[in-house]
Amino acid sequence: MSYELDRGGASMKITAVRFPIDWGSFGLPASFLASGVSISTGPRGWAWDGDPPDVGVPLVAPVEARSVSGLGLDHVVLLVPDLDGLIDSMARAGIEPRKRVIVKERPTAFFLVGALLEVIEEESVDRSLLWGLSLETSESLDAVVDRWREAGHDVTDPHPAYQEGREIITVRDAGAGLAVMTARESRVVNLEF
User: Fold this and answer.
1) 104-125 burial string, b = 16+ CB within 10 Å, else e?
2) Which of 14, 131, 133, 140 lies 20 to 30 Å from 76, alpha-carbon distance?
3) CB-side exposure of 141: number of CA atoms within 13 Å?
4) Mapping DSSP to helix (H, G, I), strand (E, B) and coil, where does residue 150 land?
């Protein structure tokens, strides 16, 4: 089953995320805006436009950030030891999953909270862990790979993403999960895998 989701409809939204990633080493500002979300360097955490769901992720204050042309936020990744428990916590905050699937043999749920939040059940974690994010770019992924490898980063070659028609690269040495995808054609997300 697939869902076509307009990203603008979420009533509660993630407004900021922070990861231990040296964005400057990627040629980005220490704090930047991507799809309306402030992304910054520091200990992992997030901010919401209202009362955040109680899922054990540290809260952070949004920082002033500047836009970066051609760069967006595709999704944020949260690892949890118990997906059903996380879904219950999100439901208490009034947020329901848009889709539940198995991805690489792991139960996964997707929530539309401004950004797309991908929640993956992971046996190796004992509490919720804001793992990483996937940016999207209008730039050629080959150009991004070349530039970031020149800067000394361990980056995969572009390869097909789960979303049909898109490609993705992964940075293995970012300090947190970091991927970059080709931009999608519209602001509609097709969650078909």
Assistant:
1) eeebbbbbbbbbbbbbbbbeee
2) 140
3) 20
4) helix
pTM of the model: 0.88
CB-based contacts of 180, cutoff 8 Å, min separation 6:
134, 135, 136, 137, 141, 144, 168, 169, 171
In whole angstroms, give the CA distance from residue 96 to residue 82. 16
pLDDT digits (tens, 9 = 90+) for 77-113: 999 999 999 999 999 999 999 999 998 899 999 999 9
Q: What is the pLDDT of residues 27-54, one digit of tens each?
A: 999 999 999 999 999 999 999 998 889 9
Count H helices and E strands in the chain, helices first. 2, 15
Q: Which two tokens stand for residue 72?
A: 């967006």
pLDDT of 187 strictly over 60: no
Distances in whole angstroms, Cα of residue 11 to Cα of each of 75, 77, 88, 177: 17, 20, 18, 27
Domains in the chain, start-ordered, CATH in brackets?
11-184 (3.10.180.10)
Question: What letter represents residue 29's amino acid?
Answer: P
Distance (Å, whole) CA 177 – CA 193: 21
Q: Which residue do the tokens 């898109």 mark?
A: 166
d(CA 72, CA 74) in angstroms, rounded, equals 6
- The Cα 175–Cα 172 span in angstroms is 8
And the tokens for 182?
A: 């080709």
